[in-house]
Amino acid sequence: MSKINFLKPDKSNLYTFLYLGSFLFFVSVLDVLLNSFFSLNLTGFLPSFLSFLLPLILGFIGLYFIRIELSGIKQLDLLNKHINTNNFNAVLSLLIIFIILKSIPPILSWFFIDASFAGDSKDVCTGTGACWTYIKVWMRRFMYGMYPNGEQWRINLSFIALALLGSVGYFATDRFKKYLTLYYVVIYPFIAFLFIFFFISGGPVFFDFSYGIIAAILSIIIGFFIPSKFKFYYFLIVPFALYVLLKYFIFYEELVELGKLDGLNWVETGAWGGLSLTFIISFFCLIFCFPIGMAFALGRRSGFPLIRYISIGFIEFWRGVPLITVLFMSAVMFPMFLPADFFIDKLVRCIIAISLFEAAYVAEVIRGGLQALPRGQYEAAKSLGMGYWRMHIFVILPQALKLVIPGIANTFLALVKDTPLIFVVGLLEIVGMLNLAKTNPEWLGFAMEGYVFAAIIFWIICYAMSKYSYNLEQKYKTDR
Amino acid sequence: MNFKLKDIGPQLMTVIAVVLVFGFFTYNAQVNMENRGIDFGYGFLSQESSFDVQFSLIEYDGSHSYFRAYLVGLLNTILVSVIGIILATILGVLVGIARLSPNYLINKFAAFYVEFFRNIPLLLQIFFWYFAALRALPLPQDAEAMFGISFLTIKGLFVPAFIWENFNIFFYSIVAAIVAIIVIRTHARKLQETQGKQTPVLLISIGLIFILPLLSFLIGGVRLSFEVPVLKQLATTSFIYEGGVSLPPELIALALSLSLYTATFIAECVRAGIQGVGKGQKEAAASIGLTQNQVLKLVVMPQALRIIIPPTTNQYLNLTKNSSLAAAIAYPDLVLVFAGTALMQTGKAIEIVSITMFTYLSLSISISLFMNWYNNKIAITEK
Description:
Strand order of the largest sheet of chain B: 1-2-3-8
Structural class of chain A: mainly alpha
Distance between the termini of chain A: 61 Å
Low-confidence stretches of chain B: none
Structural class of chain B: alpha+beta
Low-confidence stretches of chain A: none
Number of strands of chain B: 8
Number of helices of chain A: 21
Mean pLDDT of chain B: 82
CATH architecture of the domain at 66-132 and 249-378 in chain B: Orthogonal Bundle
Number of helices of chain B: 11
Shape of chain A: extended
Number of domains of chain A: 2
Shape of chain B: globular
Helix content of chain B: 55-70%
CATH architecture of the largest domain in chain A: Orthogonal Bundle
CATH class of the largest domain in chain A: Mainly Alpha
Strand content of chain B: 5-15%
Number of strands of chain A: 1
Order of helices and strands of chain A: HHHHHHHHHHHHHHHHHHHEHH
Largest sheet of chain A: none
Helix content of chain A: 55-70%
Oligomer: heterodimer
CATH topology of the domain at 66-132 and 249-378 in chain B: MetI-like fold
């Protein structure tokens, strides 16, 4: 055994340093552990200042002793490499270990041990922990807002049906794969719209259902006899013309009765709320903001100066103002811009405002993707004789959108996180409902539980979305 | 000139559509305002506002004009944005660097922070701090003093106020120190470029910035005293601190949540920027004999900043715009004072909302112009 220099740990006395160092380190951790879990203060006999700092000093000396390079012990080398590279890192590591140890017991006891779960009134919440009874009692309000209790199955059923319809893509065989884009971009949103307006809302809000259905069926049947050259224009014009014709000129009284879904009570949008409203608004804004944003991204890159300037103006305007003022505008200013007898529902105004707002951000993201594509792609497409639209639809956009998946996902995440702002126009989604419940005289003083609950829900949604976008990014990643 | 219908057609159609939409809106607005008997105009700005604002940086009460109320709101918005930007930058840079630390614990801790705070809506965080966390603070009479001079209570943070004598001399001394430092820096750089001599600029700068203000105290007649907040009893159970500076809890909650939220995004920008500097650059710098600090200061940071600044600017803009969420917790910012209270009182929806939007637009544009200028300044100048 060679001479030991305690200021310079070296390999020759490896085990002395190892045992001494680990002992000191474990003593320091044990001290904090006992202190935080069992409120035992081992060093209570020392002055309070010293007793407070002692674990840190002991742990620091311990880590200093075991910081021996190339010790030949695999675990020790790993430990040194990861948390113990130098003095500064050692102190930081110790501090983080201590913070974690110190914060576990209070968090655990608040969440579970001292929390009350049972019962359905405020009286059970006497402990120092969280009162999850409050969440339990108010659960329906947080999920469905003021939607009548007896009718909530409509929301559940719609969401389950939409989730099932949305998962079609996973089960589609190769034969149907090519129709998936059409399905997700056009058909699925339309089905969702029908569900929400006629099932959740339970009545004709915008137009009478039956006219639309009959017009659609008629025009599809006639559509089979139209030459494919004109089909695009046909479907652009005829269904709407038929709808107008049916509604205003041909039948009137007879079809009104058909259009009403008896048995479902009409629930006005003011009563919608809670988490389901968050989903509804996010869903429609996602669907609307994407094509609008794409159009303005293309407009900003367009060769026509006037279209370019209009697009720049649009994008920069929406990006320059906060969403809350946009919602203010939709609430107080927008009605002034419409004819006096023309009324647009609050929820619809909200969705339009958020969609336009987010569209500007989507436009900038997509523009980034368009700019990142090499010129060769444009030139190659043009040299094949493709026109503007064919070039963009078949060559440019598929590549550009693939590039900007992370950016678009971030914009969509921002959109979901922005939905609570609709409190400005008086719609209460989950955060708004929390604020309402908080002021209920019977349930005062449980703000913390409510916010923690909502934070957990939002965190799960947003984290899942960001992980999903990461997977998508990996899936569509192509080397160029 | 070869005008083609193919080129003009789409543009003309777009313009006509835009004009039609705007025309439709203005026509309806005119009709609606006529029906309701509202006249359009910005004359109301000089009228007496007759409402009070809880917290204002300039002197204001109900007898001042609406324009003054607008200024109060604007200044409050700028105040909370500036505080938020400073805090978010400090925290964001620290966390961003911590994300790159070889230390596993620090790395994961920073990652946890980022993932946690950026996936929760900002509004929820503001509510959490304001309604849940800050409500757990002690009442003024129970508050323990921090360092004996400031008090963090449920009614806000009370800190001592500085009371200056001959403040202008102190101010000039600092300006003089800064000017002197800039002159010395340029001179030192010139010396190094022409003669290769190195001057200890940092030491001289630190010395100057301390010595000149100190001199102003010793011979300039500058006096500084503190006004410590003192507990005062308003009623039997109602206490408040008097004197000093009081920061309302709304401001604290807002600045805290804005900076905690935005710092996560800034941290990601910083991380991306530092990672974006090629490994070869660091190795090349090390191989010509630069020390670790010099590598960071002279090679990595200048290149990383170029990647970091544009997205960080965006985050600053976002923070400024997000500060409008203040309206949710009744911090008297531009939206609450002007687009809220003033709008309710005057009913001038179009004028007020347009002024508010225009203000935010100009704030955004000025920040982005400044940052563009700075970005151009540090961009690579090709010789």
